[in-house]
Design goal:
Blueprint (H helix, E strand, L loop, with lengths): L1 H4 L10 H19 L19 H20 L2 H12 L4 H7 L4 H32 L1
Helix pairs in contact: 3-6, 4-6, 5-6
Length: 135
């Protein structure tokens, strides 16, 4: 719908699919910025219910929540590249095209985002383990 509304801004020298992906990327940024929706991380829907008990479901939900919060904590400039790579499976060249950037800059953004995610999740895990030891 937004694509048709934005057709006036489309310049024929670019590829329509790139323009469409740019609109999608901007929509994603706006949603995350406004925090109306967290990134979907429903792992439970992909697992056979017979193999997942209530305790496992709670643990998966908790882990999914932690990952979603850690992704939201990544600076917006790096988060978009990471989401396009990891959640949408796009290659570096396509991401660079969508973000109006170079492949090198995209690789750097993804590297920083992964490092931030790793640090956030390790900090969160060590804090959780510390709380469990005191209980």
């Amino acid at each position: 719908m937004k694509f048709f509304a934005a057709l006036d801004g489309y310049h024929s020298q670019g590829r329509p699919v790139s323009y469409l992906l740019r609109i999608a990327a901007n929509s994603l940024k706006n949603r995350v910025r406004n925090r109306r929706e967290a990134p979907s991380s429903d792992v439970l829907g992909r697992l056979p219910s017979s193999t997942v008990g209530p305790a496992d479901q709670a643990q998966i939900r908790d882990r999914s929540r932690r990952v979603a919060n850690a992704v939201l904590a990544i600076p917006e400039s790096d988060r978009g590249a990471l989401v396009l790579r990891e959640y949408h499976g796009l290659d570096y060249a396509r991401i660079a095209e969508i973000l109006n950037s170079t492949e090198g800059a995209v690789k750097q953004k993804i590297f920083r985002a992964r490092r931030s995610l790793r640090k956030s999740l390790l900090t969160d895990t060590s804090q959780t383990l510390g709380e469990g030891a005191r209980s």
